[in-house]
Amino acid sequence: xxxxxxxxxxxxxxxxxxxxxxxxxxxxxxxxxxxxxxxxxxxxxxxxxxxxxxxxxxxxxxxxxxxxxxxxxxxxxxxxxxxxxxxxxxxxxxxxxxxxxxxxxxxxxxxxxxxxxxxxxxxxxxxxxxxxxxxxxxxxxxxxxxxxxxx
Length: 151
Known about the structure:
Helices cover 53% and strands 18% of the residues. The protein has helices at 2-17, 33-45, 65-77, 91-103, 126-150, and strands spanning 25-29, 51-52, 57-61, 85-87, 108-113, 116-121. Strands 1-3-2 form a 3-stranded antiparallel β-sheet, with no helix packed on it. A 3-stranded antiparallel β-sheet has the order 4-6-5, with no helix packed on it. A hairpin with a 2-residue loop joins strand 5 (108-113) and strand 6. Mean pLDDT is 81; it is low at 1-21.
């Protein structure tokens, strides 16, 4: 009886612990249709099985999670150079930043990520842009205070 119980218990534990991880799935979503298409190409190139549902969710095996997360980071951060990009949540700050870049003849490019505009500049302008960012932040705080005081 104890032997049968041990065998049954071992079988149950093996079934639980030996489950194929590919049966477990994870999902992610990329809202921008063009970005989603480009990311799907990356998944295909890396031979990661996936499917897309009617809501745009990309489902993939959980055992591919680390690869997918790495590809997501590579895709979304590849063109945003570390230390040389910024975005603003207030339109006032964004417009002031653009005006200051133009006033100081600093060339820049923009990228759209998650409906936000990211500004990217060349390394040679980093010191000047740092000063501009600090100026914009201070002016933005003043603007927020002005708006709050009007209420």
